[in-house]
Write a structure and sequence with these properties.
The complex is a heterodimer.
Chain A (H helix, E strand, L loop, with lengths): L4 H9 L3 H23 L2 H17 L10 H18 L1 H10 L10 H13 L2 H11 L5 H8 L3 H21 L4
Helix pairs in contact in A: 1-2, 2-3, 2-4, 2-7, 3-4, 4-8, 7-9, 8-9
Chain B lengths: L2 H4 L8 H8 L5 H11 L3 H18 L7 H18 L6 H7 L7 E5 L5 E5 L87 E7 L9 E3 L3 E4 L3 E6 L4 E5 L2 E8 L2 E14 L8 E5 L2 E5 L3 E6 L4 E7 L2 E4 L4 E4 L3 E5 L9 E2 L2 H4 L1 H5 L8 E4 L4 E3 L2 E4 L8 E4 L23 E8 L3 E10 L9 E2 L2 E2 L6 E6 L5 E4 L3 E2 L4 E2 L4 E4 L12 E6 L2 E9 L13 E8 L8 H5 L1
Parallel strand pairs in B: 9-10
Antiparallel strand pairs in B: 1-2, 3-4, 3-6, 5-8, 6-7, 7-9, 8-9, 9-12, 10-11, 11-14, 12-13, 13-16, 14-15, 16-17, 18-33, 19-22, 20-21, 22-32, 23-30, 23-31, 23-33, 24-25, 26-27, 26-32, 28-29
Classes of the chains: A mainly alpha, B alpha+beta.
Chain lengths: 174, 561
């Protein structure tokens, strides 16, 4: 039987490195992917990824065990990503080096185009698309991560998709 | 021209719905409807084409962190684990083996990965046998609890971490045991061959429990013998021991019961169980897992185990969680985690009853819960007893029109009224604590039409009693009208209720306050009965339930069981 996140956190608080590592393996790729989609920059994404887990492990007591660890980790990562993006230097680097990673060769062109359009979105729209598209969170949970209502999350998604669609249709930036 | 038309989008289907459709997240019927619509809508077809690119992003491979970032996280992880881990207490093992450490002790022989030889810290008088140490094969070191090692590159698909090692080196003498796989088809009658490492031979075919809630291949009344692995494959299986303690097993749980004298041990190898234990001081009830054991003295608690550790949740009473490394007392409303290589963690406050809801829902009773047939009380007329439709045994009611009595204050009998009749019950509480009273009520009908004030009907239905303990303060008992959540009325049906302040809402227990252990007198007094030759509106009460568990909600089947 797979142990729940909350049980593993409880074990981690007692110093179980195995529990910590299991949690890490469980969320490593999701957090890294989220960070990369949010920032569009691998170096910045790795900073976000690393600091998310460092913060989490150093402040295990801050997690309020309610079966919502994913939302909690995404919240940390989102906050760090937005902080990182506020730093114009990093953001400009991201713009300059925007590149899709690990996309299959035959998909590179259309995926690149979509990735580019995604990166051009305002961060508050991009995070909604990222959480919905890549992490499959429902709008209620997205609202919890971002700190907005479910209805607002839904309407932001609508704006974001309309902008993305427009960009993909015309090649203009949204 | 609408906004949608201007932007070249269909007004019927939102872009987020189309994306959900492309990602397979739209319900099938809605997807079909969208497909049918898109066949004739050029805007939606264009949306599909463009959003397919966006949806395609999700199919791209996940992004993985670089080695440096991953190594940095793992380093922090190890550092934090070391910082949090309490000092290892290897000497405990030596203490556990000393001959004067406990009045009871047993040897639990683990299946493959563990040894548990545990001694209660609660008792310390008589000799105990030495713990056996068993292991099947040299245990590989764990991936992260080792001393620092060179950073390995992150693996794309990390191997499952091997089990944690024992902190205590194994003794050479016991032979290996079989791996700890739950048996897929537990033999119901014949005990399986014992592994050769059981320290003390168990008498064959000792019955330790019976099935009181059926599940899978187990039927009510089936005997559970010592040494039989019991596997709950579906739903919830509940076993009851001779002393009426109950063990609820969740689906996917395997336990094996062992009896040694009066002591009972349930060894759980996988899954989750919850226990409601009634023990006498001379009797021990233990749940043992690979990660340690839990010793209890009259309590409700749950144990969940998995490969990395066990979590003990206590709803009531106290338990002692113990393994080779240390021991920890866990109290009511607390949860504690155990792994094999660390001392049981510091308990944290949790809503234990909520975590054990699955077991309560399956009928696991609260220990100490007492049931009293109202008809068994000592009745003072006009309180009377009679069997009516749906009653359990005889129900009591006051056969009087309270409005005619001197103590009638226009709504109910005043607290000093002597004429309304009452019933008294003597109870012997098994423990001191905060007790709660439930009653099973039947209110024959609303009596609002009976009383008027200024010409208007008054909201004053005959639906309640007074209750007091040892001549103390009187509480309103019953008095329920409606549960808006379930739309269940408090009239013309039997219901469990108590707290008279909840006229509209979910019925709840009446808190009686703190009561000492031992004998108490409960008096149920007429409050607002209206019973005449033509009006039969006196509230009925057939069963009382006294429980120390604030969150327990009695059900008819609990009583009947």
């Amino acid at each position: 039987m797979e142990q729940s996140d909350d049980d593993l956190v409880a074990l981690a608080r007692t110093g179980s490195a195995s529990a910590m590592e299991t949690l890490y393996r469980r969320y490593r790729d999701r957090i890294m992917t989220f960070a990369f989609r949010m920032t569009g920059d691998r170096a910045l994404a790795e900073d976000v990824f690393q600091n998310t887990f460092v913060y989490f492990y150093e402040h295990l007591e801050k997690y309020d065990a309610q079966g919502k660890l994913a939302a909690y980790l995404f919240r940390i990562a989102r906050s760090l990503a937005l902080d990182g993006l506020k730093d114009g230097r990093r953001d400009r680097q991201a713009m300059a080096r925007r590149e899709p990673v690990e996309a299959a060769a035959e998909e590179a062109i259309p995926i690149d185009k979509a990735q580019k359009a995604l990166q051009e979105l305002a961060p508050q729209l991009r995070e909604i698309v990222t959480l919905r598209l890549f992490d499959g969170l429902d709008y209620g949970r997205i609202g919890e991560v971002v700190g907005i209502s479910e209805a607002t999350a839904r309407s932001r998604m609508r704006y974001a998709l309309e902008a993305l669609r427009e960009a993909l249709k015309t090649g203009r930036q949204p | 021209m609408t906004w949608e038309e201007k932007s070249g989008m269909c007004g019927q289907w939102g872009q987020e719905q189309i994306l959900d459709h492309l990602q397979g997240r739209l319900p099938a019927a809605e997807s079909d409807r969208f497909r049918a619509h898109a066949a004739s809508c050029s805007d939606c077809r264009a949306s599909i084409e463009e959003l397919t690119l966006v949806a395609g992003l999700a199919t791209a491979a996940p992004v993985r962190p670089g080695r440096e970032a991953e190594a940095a996280v793992l380093a922090v992880l190890r550092r934090e684990a070391a910082r949090r881990k309490p000092p290892t207490r290897r000497r405990l093992r030596r203490v556990a083996g000393t001959p004067d450490s406990a009045a009871w002790a047993w040897v639990l022989v683990g299946a493959a990965v563990f040894m548990v030889a545990l001694v209660s810290a609660i008792v310390s008088s008589a000799p105990a046998p030495k713990p056996a140490v068993v292991r099947s094969e040299p245990t590989p070191p764990p991936p992260v609890e080792d001393p620092p090692r060179p950073q390995a590159p992150p693996s794309v698909t990390p191997p499952k971490p091997p089990p944690e090692p024992f902190l205590v080196p194994p003794k050479p003498e016991p032979p290996p045991v079989e791996p700890p796989k739950p048996l897929p088809t537990p033999p119901p009658v014949e005990p399986p061959p014992k592994p050769p490492t059981i320290a003390e031979p168990k008498p064959a075919a000792v019955e330790i429990a019976r099935v009181v809630r059926a599940s899978g291949r187990y039927a009510i009344g089936d005997k559970i013998l010592a040494g039989d692995p019991v596997q709950c494959s579906t739903g919830v299986l509940i076993l009851e021991t001779a002393d009426k303690s109950q063990v609820a097993l969740k689906a996917g749980t395997t336990v094996t019961g062992e009896a040694q004298g009066d002591h009972l041990t349930f060894r759980i190898t996988d899954g989750e169980l919850a226990c409601s234990v009634k023990t006498r001081p001379e009797r021990r009830f233990v749940v043992a897992a690979a990660h340690g054991s839990v010793t209890v003295k009259g309590t409700i608690f749950g144990v969940r185990v998995a490969s990395l550790g066990a979590v003990v949740t206590v709803a009531k009473g106290r338990v002692e969680a113990r393994n080779d490394v240390g021991a920890q007392e866990v109290g009511s409303g607390e949860r504690c985690s155990m792994s094999r290589s660390t001392s049981p963690g510091r308990p944290e406050a949790v809503n234990a009853d909520k975590l054990l809801t699955w077991a309560y829902d399956a009928g696991l009773p609260s220990p100490g819960t007492m049931w009293i047939l109202a008809g068994s009380g000592d009745l003072q007329a006009p309180m009377t007893r009679a069997r009516i439709a749906g009653s359990i045994g005889e129900a009591i009611h006051a056969a009087v029109d309270s409005r005619t009595l001197p103590g009638w204050n226009g709504r109910f009998l005043a607290s000093n009224a002597k004429e309304g009749g009452w019933a008294t019950f003597t109870v012997d509480l098994p423990e001191a604590g905060t007790w709660h009273l439930w009653g099973r009520f039947f209110n024959p009908g609303s009596g609002s039409q009976l009383w008027k004030q200024d010409g208007e009907p008054k909201d004053n239905d005959p639906n309640s009693f007074f209750v007091s303990v040892d001549g103390g303060k009187e509480f309103v008992f019953g008095n329920h009208k409606l549960d808006p959540e379930t739309k269940a009325s408090g009239y013309r049906r039997w219901y469990w209720g108590g707290d008279g302040t909840i006229e509209v809402g979910r019925p709840g227990a009446l808190p009686l306050g703190t009561l000492s252990k031992g004998r108490h007198t409960i008096r149920i007094r007429n409050r607002d009965a209206v019973e005449t030759s033509s009006l039969h509106l006196a509230p009925r009460l057939d069963v009382l339930c006294l429980t120390p568990d604030r969150d327990y909600r009695p059900r008819d089947e609990d009583f009947r069981k």
